Amino acid sequence: MGLVKSFCEANTSISHTWVDEGISPCFYFTLVPSVLLTIAFFLGTIHCICFQKYGTAMEPKFIPRSHLYGLQQAISILLLVQFLSGLVWQATTGAELPGYVVLYGCFSALGWVWAIALLRVERRRVLVMDRTRGHSAALLLFWAVAFSAENLAFVSWYSPHWWWSLENNKQQVQFALWLMRYVGTGLLFFIGLKAPGLPRRPYMLLINEDERDVEQSGQSLLGTTDENQSTWQGFWKKVRLLLPYMWPRGNLFLQMLVVFCLGLLGVERAINVFVPIYNKNIVNELTDGSSWHTLATTVIIYVFLKFMQGGGAGASGFISNLRSFLWIRVQQYTNRVVQVRLFAHLHSLSLRWHLGRKTGDVLRSIDRGTSSINSLLSYIVFSIFPTIADIVISIVYFITYFNAWFGLIVFICMALYLTLTIIITEWRTKYRRDMNLQDNNAKSKAVDSLLNFETVKYYNAENYEVGRYEDAILKYQASEWMTQATLAFLNQTQNLIIGSGLLAGSLLCAYFVTEGKFQVGDYVLFGTYIIQLYTPLNWFGTYYRMIQNSFIDMECMFKLFEEEEEVKDEVNAGNLLYKLGKVEFENVYFSYTNGKEILKDVSFTVLPGQTVALVGPSGSGKSTIIRLIFRFYDIHGGCIRIDGQDISKVKQTSLRAHIGVVPQDTVLFNNAIRDNIRYGRISASDREVEEAAIAADIHSKIMTFPEGYDTQVGERGLKLSGGEKQRVAIARTILKAPQIILLDEATSALDTQTERNIQASLAKVCVNRTTVVVAHRLSTIIGADQILVINDGRIAERGGHEELLLKGGLYADMWMNQQQAMDVDSASDTEAKDRNSEKLQPPSASSGHGH
């Protein structure tokens, strides 16, 4: 059993802090547990009192289940056992047991008991009004100090009083215990930053949060993001999504460029080490009287290395410029692939999603998201990793060629700098995210207002629209001010840390020079190296912020990528084998939203070459049937077949290749009339385009335009009248020459004469083609082979025109109402003509003698 004879070892005192090129064990193992116990006892006690007095027990449903929390507890208990077992082991070795060893074991054990207790308290109770998330400052400070204390052992690397030489069993056991403490405290600190055992959001937000309406959340285009959510959440998921864009698959040339650029990056790291070394050699050779030949050689090598490096840490050196030049091709590849894949993905989404989208939000999200991917790759690969590599290399170099104090100064400065940069930047994230939302809002208002230019004019709402836009800009600028203000605070914090580290290192180096331990060139080396290191480190905060911003900018784009296709082809779906064009609906049920069925048990058959008309009140489901045949949506019950094939089992492209649609509301591309008609069949010749226009009764009208078929139709075709746009759409469908034709109120915007002309054209086009017509004017579908009267989602009546009139049902009522309306309109037109003719009669003779 070891006996305690003195507090420190023989010939040492607790006042001796530095002994034999290392920290005195007596001083170190007295100071560290005292600080830890102070933090745990006083701060932990205050924290527990506040939690008991002002806190409340968390509801179990809000406490997350986490394996990492279990790991936190296990590590804490393991460290507690380690301190106690270490004390017992040293007491049983039989040697003299210094008092500081007993104090270290007891104080450390007490401190870790408090830490474990505090960890359990935070798991079960919470301050109700607390608006933050994560562990308390007391617990994080305890873990940070414990981990930093274990790092101080590196300072005593050359001291014989420590365990680094591993010469005997005692030192080997001490090293094993230290390694356990080092790994354990490090894991606790870094896991503690994530706080896995605590709610991800402030407790007040959780208990007061209203449940979101299912339909509203379903219509949210880009989603709502928790402003307290870290942008690093889901980091690996985001990285996996980016991996295909990071490595240019299938392109050997670009892959070789990537590897070569990474090689240049390694060369830059080596040059950054040798530049200050040769600068030091020049100073030493100038002071010790070296020969001109030696000095000139050193200067030439230094200038060459500086030329390769550029102005401070490779900002604009030859290698950096060469790497940037070679990386252009890789960057362009990434940008192109991202935009093309996202564009294709948006086109694969359902009609439901596109009807609920906000075009301004989508465009801004695509622009910022695609540009941010390039920024992210560039910052991570060519800025963050090299900076971290430079920091590690510098710490090793200073410890090896100077002494451990310089390595400690660099390490503490780097650790403080990086930690505070990450913490403050994470805090700033919510302001940047809010600024993006306000930016999207402002741009969305501008786009919507400009797209509805005519409506704004109709209601003299220019001032109202300008006011809305100005309010949106003011909200954006308020968020922008907070973003810039917090950025200034971050920059000042970084400058303070950098200045403090430079001052401490420069004073220490200057002292060693005056003592004769260092040469003048060593001071120059330190100053050159440390400033060279601080240059990229000063940018590290910017890089980290830009990476954060890139993640924020990509969040909306990721949400676009995550939007699932509502209508998908089956894995082994084949092509539609078109035979005759028989369309069958069998017990079809469909609803746009849960609880409100649009179609209820709809069954009918359209025989090959027949024309079936769908009539009925607005909102009865006529246009929905057209959309289901085209498979814009998947039905919820029943089956739709074409030539006996279930359309949900065939590829969408093959299905739609056989179907032509003339929609009720025609939207044209902002392009020439010729190109809009040719959209029906991209490979069509100009002659075929003109023939389609003739068939749609639009050719003669086009020829009256100054530019003919090259006339630009304007945004959404606004330069054309409603009838002209519809005839262009009909010509486009005629050019496609489909076997099945769907007409959704195809002539609703046309005058009577034009309607008759197009009806004749459509009759020719529809000959021997299966046709489904949605009609409002019953006079246009008198000749249909079968008329289906849709009411309240069901087929109320079916039959021919005469047959339905004889039934005297819903169709007969609709026919009678339309005939009466036409008679009233005709009578009104006749009266108007009579009044106009009376106004044109010359005054009578009697009226002329009245004066």
TrEMBL record:
Chief subcellular location: membrane
Membrane topology reported for the UniProt record: Multi-pass membrane protein
Record-linked SUPFAM superfamilies: ABC transporter transmembrane region (SSF90123), P-loop containing nucleoside triphosphate hydrolases (SSF52540)
PROSITE patterns, A to Z: ABC_TM1F (PS50929), ABC_TRANSPORTER_1 (PS00211), ABC_TRANSPORTER_2 (PS50893)
Documented EC number(s): 7.6.2.5
Residue ranges of the region described as Disordered: 822-851
UniProt KW Cell membrane keyword: yes
Catalytic activity, reaction form: heme b(in) + ATP + H2O = heme b(out) + ADP + phosphate + H(+); coproporphyrin I(in) + ATP + H2O = coproporphyrin I(out) + ADP + phosphate + H(+); pheophorbide a(in) + ATP + H2O = pheophorbide a(out) + ADP + phosphate + H(+); uroporphyrin III(in) + ATP + H2O = uroporphyrin III(out) + ADP + phosphate + H(+)
Superkingdom of the source species: Eukaryota
Cellular component aspect of the GO annotation: early endosome membrane; endoplasmic reticulum membrane; extracellular region; Golgi membrane; lysosomal membrane; melanosome membrane; mitochondrial outer membrane; multivesicular body membrane
Domain ABC transmembrane type-1: 259-549
CDD domains for the chain: ABC_6TM_ABCB6, ABCC_ATM1_transporter
Keyword Secreted: yes
Transmembrane segments: 27-50, 71-91, 97-119, 139-158, 178-195, 252-275, 295-319, 376-399, 405-425, 496-514, 526-544
One GO MF term: ATP binding
Intracellular or extracellular location(s): Cell membrane; Early endosome membrane; Endoplasmic reticulum membrane; Endosome membrane
Keywords: ATP-binding, Cell membrane, Disulfide bond, Endoplasmic reticulum, Endosome, Golgi apparatus, Lysosome, Membrane, Mitochondrion, Mitochondrion outer membrane, Nucleotide-binding, Secreted, Translocase, Transmembrane, Transmembrane helix, Transport
Domain ABC transporter: 583-817
A Pfam family reported for this protein in Swiss-Prot or TrEMBL: ABC_tran
Subunit architecture: Homodimer.
Similarity annotation: Belongs to the ABC transporter superfamily. ABCB family. Heavy Metal importer (TC 3.A.1.210) subfamily.
Protein name listed in UniProt: ATP-binding cassette sub-family B member 6
